[in-house]
Amino acid sequence: MKRKLPPFYAFPILNKITGQALSSITENLDGIDGNFYVVPDLPDYLQAGIVDSPSNFKVQRIKQYQGYACNLDGFGDVDSYLKQRFGKSSIKNMKARKRQLESRFSTSHRFFYGAMDKDHYDFLFDRFYQMLKSRFDEKKTFNRYLLEWNYYYELVYPMILKQEAVLYVIYVGDEPISISLEFCVDDICFGYIHGYDSTYHRYQIGDIRMMMLLDWMIAHNFKIFDTLMGETAFKAKWSNLIYDYHYEVFCLPGSAISRLKLQHTKLKLRLKQYLRDTGILGKWFQMDKFMYRRMSKRLQDFDWKEPVI
Predict the structure, then answer these.
(1) Would you say 110 and 160 are in contact if contact means Cβ atoms under 8 Å apart?
(2) Which site in 48, 169, 278, 305 is 20 to 30 Å from 91, CA atoms measured?
(3) What's the sign of the alpha-carbon dihedral 295, 147, 37, 8?
(4) How many CA atoms lie within 13 A of 215 on its CB side?
(5) pLDDT, tens digit, for every residue of 83-123?
(6) What is the pLDDT of residue 285?
(7) How far apart are the C-alpha atoms of 13 and 283, rounded to whole Å?
């Protein structure tokens, strides 16, 4: 979201899947000041050169979790993508659910990208929060966005106007039943937050959302829809690209403190990944469930419209 490159890296940033350089990231973050840095969550389909440092920093690359994406390069429309990913019966079922929803209710679909009425934005963001809060209470799992909702409210509107974000909404009448927020960087869309009214779960709103989003992205020349880190059955079903995230750790080999921090960081990250790979984290022990109770207490009488102090 910052659209700035950490100071260790050099332009251009290349999308290795499409061969295109990202042109909207044109500024580096503040310069190097210290002897140890961790750059997290680098998807391996993006590539940037590493700047020669006068301090002779060394870098170590540590593999972490997998990410999931839809590679849209070469697809002329959403139907061609569906045919690659799904069998005829699955496609028929998804489209039938969409027709059922649209025949039984007065539905409409809107993409807000480049222009949006501010009052309607305010209305949608309040409904968006309510959807996420209801889902939080239903599933009893941690949601990291709720306590920071005012931050996202302030952030996203100017990004929509600059075509750096898109808000996709499914309405029944004037009421939203599904809202999805994506961030846009050149030919990549990052799926960030989505919520829906569970009253309509029988219509497989998630599949309808994906069909409409992919159709819109292909029409607007996006080549990657990145649904980001974390394995779910839904992501696996829709994704035709699985990639790895890495941490890149920069240290000064001549500094004992820097070397110690490096060893500690490597041990911590590799242990966490081992726990994920063996299913201890995510299957046997779910952090989201563990954190739910603490967060539910903080959300009592919480008003997202008031800035968190």
Answers:
(1) no
(2) 169
(3) positive
(4) 12
(5) 999 999 999 999 999 999 999 999 999 999 999 999 999 99
(6) 47
(7) 35
User: Does the pLDDT of residue 4 top 80, yes or no?
Assistant: no
Backbone torsions φ then ψ of 3, nearest 5 degrees: 55, 35
Q: Detail the DSSP E strand segments found in the chain.
A: 4-5, 9-15, 20-22, 27-28, 36-43, 46-50, 58-71, 107-112, 165-172, 175-185, 188-196, 224-229, 241-251
Over 60: is that where the pLDDT of 286 sits? no
Under a CB-based contact definition with an 8 Å cutoff, are residues 223 and 73 in contact? Answer: yes
Rounded distance between C-alpha atoms, residue 37 and residue 33, angstroms = 9
| Residue-wise burial string across 283-297, b where 16 or more C-beta atoms lie within 10 A, e elsewhere | eeeeeeeeebeebee
More confident site: 260 or 274: 260
Give which of 203, 210, 263, 199 is closest to 237, Cα–Cα.
Answer: 210
Sequence-ordered list of residues with C-beta below 8 angstroms from that of 183, at least 6 positions apart, any chain: 1, 159, 164, 165, 189, 190, 192
Would you say 94 and 207 are in contact if contact means Cβ atoms under 8 Å apart? yes
Count of Cβ atoms closer than 10 Å to residue 227 Cβ: 22
**Residue 303, amino acid:** D
Q: How many angstroms separate the CA atoms of 25 and 49, rounded?
A: 14
Distance between CA atoms of residues 110 and 123, nearest Å: 14
Q: Which of 53, 59, 44 is nearest to 13 (CA)?
A: 44
Q: How far apart are CA 192 and CA 230, in angstroms?
A: 12
CA angle 243, 249, 253 (to 5 degrees): 145
Q: How far apart are CA 199 and CA 124, in angstroms?
A: 18
Q: pTM to 2 decimals?
A: 0.87
Amino acid making up residue 40: P
Q: Can you state the angle between helices 205-219 and 88-104, rounded to 10 degrees?
A: 100
Look at residue 308 and tell me whether its pLDDT is greater than 60. no
DSSP state of 77: S
